Structure prediction request, 650 residues.
Amino acid sequence: MDNNFLLIENISKSFGDNKVLENINLNISKSEFFGLLGSSGSGKTTLLRILGGFEKPDTGRVILDGMDITNLEPFERPLNYMFQSYALFPHLNVFNNLAFGIKENFTQKEIEINVRNIAELLSIEHLLNRRIKQLSGGEQQRVALGRCLIKKPKLLLLDEPLAALDKKLRSKTQLELTTLQKKLKITFVFVTHDQEEAMSLSDRMAIMKNGLILECSSPEEIYENPKSLYTANFIGIANIIEIYKKDENFYSDDLGINFKLNKELKNTKTNILLRPEKIKIQSINNLKTSSFNSFSGEILEKSYLGSFTRYEIKIKNMIISVLDQNFNSNSNYNFPKGEKVICTWESESIKVLED
Amino acid sequence: MKNKLFEKYFVFSPYFWLVLFFFIPLAIIFKISISVSEWGMPPYQDIFLFDNGFKINTTFENYVYIFSDYYYIGSFVNSLILALISTFFCLLIGFPLAFYIATSNIRLRNILLVLVVIPFWSSFLLRVYAWKIILQNNGILNVILLNLGITSEPLQLLYNQYAVIIGIVYTYLPLMILPLYGYLNKFDLNLIEASKDLGLNRFKTFFKVILPLSVPGIVAGSLLVFIPVVGEFIIPEMLGGSDRLYYGKILWEEFFVNRNWPGASALAFSGIIILVLPIVIFQILYSRWSEKNEI
Prediction:
């Protein structure tokens, strides 16, 4: 695999006094599905627009497949951009929207063949004569995608590709998008504020905040081993516990318990992450409280989520979230509110947050 | 009950307005246009005579007269050509301006809009007169040209059809810009970026995306300029020469110089019909077209 297919080097961008991007560096491989995840104002869309050529960076370079494209106009770049609003042309029907980018260089016959092929790929053959306003949101999304893919771009940029779809359609489209991307082997870079979307689509993803990239790794790595407090909180549900060194072990004042860690710490005081699904919850009768890696508490809230039940458990000064898989088909299996329970976990489940 | 009445009145008020200030005057003009002219006050005979029993006293001679003389038809054609050229130049200047205003940030946009409207605050006559001063033989423009050595003697810039076109384009430009702005304001700028992204340069993007989607604004602005320019009287009178006669001027002369009210009315009525009918047909066709294309 070509690890240097898309190189983003030292990109910075300001709008007036507002620094939107600060010294961004990224290497994206060929055929990779890459996600840029951040809340609004993190600079993710500006970065995507710089790749598309709609904004010029103040400093830095963008190199695509060995070619410096930093100063190329959008119409000179061998890539395409799918807009969040889809930006389909309302004065043209679906066929002409799909054919828009290839009309110049192809004969009428070639255009027809290409449009038919792409329409077949996206299952929109029956829509070719429709007007844009007659399409549903999902159909518009396909046309927008087809209009880009028909140009066989080296790189496809997608701005919030699923944001305009309703929830049910979104998960279906997520799957289709990944299948399509693996099939076509085109490099996809997309922007989203939705962490679930980023996790399910990306091969690798970058977490952005205030114009900086905090972390860049696979979704699994970012979820399981986040480096920063921000990432830990941003992705999934996180129990963040402050601990400090006390004698041989680490102690939490909020929980009033000792932690056993597998590795040595630089600092004497740090935050640790304990994901809610890593905690095992048991009835207090079954087990005796040990002084390490376990605590007893009282169930404060519970919400039944079908495959999981989410408990909020109060221990001393803190509320800890626990996700318990509903393994047993007996509906009485759940712990009721107010019940005293014991929570335990493996030492490996504790992740130290360095930043 | 009271509300119902009010609603009814409210719905019909535009029609009431139209009847009172458009159809009734139009009917009066038509009535005069088919009257027999005579010396007197008013300078035409009644169309209903009751002297020796009831008699309808009408004639279509006025229409025959104006349509058989190229003097009248020619002036109308001149006015149509003038209106076409002026509308074209208004569009040529107005479209980029309107587009620039519509796409600039809100602060600049408001300033520019005020600048577009500001000329309306001063008298129309004064503004046209100002062009007279600019274009005359010892006017500003000639002085500049002479000093720059571009010409050795003053150019005859005033009292010809070019001066008329300049005056009209200047005066009617806001009427083009405002409806265009109103339409372009809603333009989705992502469409321009999408077009560029799909490989079309600025020039092609303009003709394939911006222009087709601006048709409604262009139509509105062009009609707003074209229709009044056909009947424009003051600007050709002040800036024009004897090289070309225009419809408005002929109409004026027929009324006030020749005191031929029936002839002038026939001219006015024919003008309205010739102008309004194609526009009505055009509007019907256009609304069908835009409905079909959903613009």
